[in-house]
Acetate--CoA ligase
Amino acid sequence: MTSYPPAPEFAAQANADAALYERARADRDGFWAEQANRLHWHKPFTEVLDWTDAPVARWFGDGELNVAYNCLDRHVIDGHGDQVAIHWEGEPGDSRAITYAELLDEVCRAANTFTALGLVPGDRVAIYMPMVPEAIVTMLACARLGLTHSVVFAGFSPTALRQRVDDAEARLIVTTDGQWRRGKPAALKYAVDEALGSDPSSVEHVLVVRRVGLDVPWTEVRDLWWDETVAAASPSHEAQPFPAEHPLFILYTSGTTGKPKGILHTTGGYLTQTAYTHHNVFDHKPGHDIYWCTADIGWVTGHSYIVYGPLANRATQVVYEGTPNSPDEHRHFQIIEKYGVTIYYTAPTLIRTFMKWGRDIPDAHDLSTLRLLGSVGEPINPEAWRWYREVFGANNTPIVDTWWQTETGAIMIAPLPGVTAAKPGAAMGPLPGISAQVVDDDGTPVGSDESGLLVLDQPWPSMLRGIWNDMDRYRETYWQRFASEGWYFAGDGAKLDADGDLWILGRVDDVMNVSGHRISTAEVESALVGHPAVAEAAVVGASDETTGQGIVAFVILTGSAAAADALVSELKAAVSLEISPIARPREIHIVPELPKTRSGKIMRRLLRDVAEGRELGDTSTLVDPTVFEAIATA
Ligand code: 6R9
């Protein structure tokens, strides 16, 4: 297996060296204390980790800090107020350069506005916004005040928004009038009104940023314009310290049941690990690099590697509002060229899309400023890895394939650029300070050239502290599988190769990964059976050349419904509407029967075989093995 050692010039200037592994191995707590001390603590911590209440960790428990102070004030105080924090690029071609001083100013105004609305530390704020600077301002203003934000991806439906707002009991929703989507304004505030409806809710105010100039429905007193409130508020605000374990945000993610889990993250450990990983894995140099993470703030990657990690490290970054093909497929490459992007972090699904569009598109641009490339969200196939390095990286840049999850809060497994000789498609190994194992069903570590389940056998600073409103589910989902060992079960399969390097194989549960987005089979099934024509539904993720997995649904119709192409389109639209366009099934097959075990469980493995056009595996546990003849011909 070819590996790609770092170029000597890169290694010579890299932030991380091999000694970092040694240091972390020799004294894990001391190592993490050093990382935490890269932040500003209003009150220094004296204790590093308290694991006595496992699986709920306390990191730096007696310390106090303010996240927004760390991301903004201290850089301005240190004389970097004029450094650009965000080069924001709007979809229609408008742009804004926002310095650290300006960002601080905006965040203070927003914080004063939220305080005037009566919000107090611990209150929850829902953020339902496209990639506009005000979304980042809102997150930081919440952090500054000790408010817990819950960002809901702006592509989610009103139903999904309502579910999340209710679960978190948000008092405020911050949104925009609409968002640009491929050259057209699309309504967004409208969806908030639909979500809130006329049923009583916890929401007292809806704060609306004007982005596209659409007319919006308006409820007096409840609804407020950003440009009439925040813009008019005072820009001076003193950041108060909060305990290290103060809740910072909730972010909902799909689990194996239909109900999304509100993953809870806290302050000190989270900021420590996002800043540490952003510094070492991306080799980020403040004042020199132009960093671009292409994620949306609706996902954890946007939280950790657009907002908190980069800003804590005083990055200058590009934030882009739109899709990679607006107005055409050159957009990302033009942006890289325009700003001289040096570090680019994206998802394999986009790399495969670029491959499909053809290399003459990137070749038409000067990408020579790029010096490091990152990948996240799903396994990157070796072919895409090599293409990425060759076409984006002039066959020279390191690629960091970063494995982590909403739950882990920050990168856990990745090569260290400048140190690791990376292999295309491999996440390689746990970062310094992180400990992971690949084990079999009984918890016995697998040997080289074997695969098993990925577990994290030591607590880490940015780990989730629970599931909002459901600590039982927290214990069950992550800690029950290897309860006697006390390990965190990630839900992913992994393999160790002959050299002992780690490869992530993907989910081993009923969670699909479509273009790097987690969607549970149960969620899509419940959206389908919500349609009157559907009696029963089973959903699987089938491998897909571009999106990693595609959603394939098998449905049984109610007696009266007639099978028709129109119905299939209607069902696809129903899923988009109920969950999000991301969850729209690639295929829907109308079938007379579903394969079930004697205990009534749908055999998804077999349906996946059908969806991927494979020979059927073992059907012996089926109640009625003949159902497959009907399904295969349906
Ligand atoms: C950050 C993020 C987490 C799931 C995770 C795994 C998959 C993420 C990966 C990867 C292989 C990588 N995943 N990074 N698989 N290689 N580098 O994506 O969080 O949305 O919670 O998804 O994504 O299956 O369990 P999240």
Notes: Residues 253, 299-301, 376-379, 401-406, 427, 490-492, 504, 506-507, 513, 516, 518 surround 6R9 (CB under 6 Å). The chain has two domains: 8-491, 515-632. The first strand starts at residue 49 and ends at 50. The two ends are 43 Å apart (CA to CA).
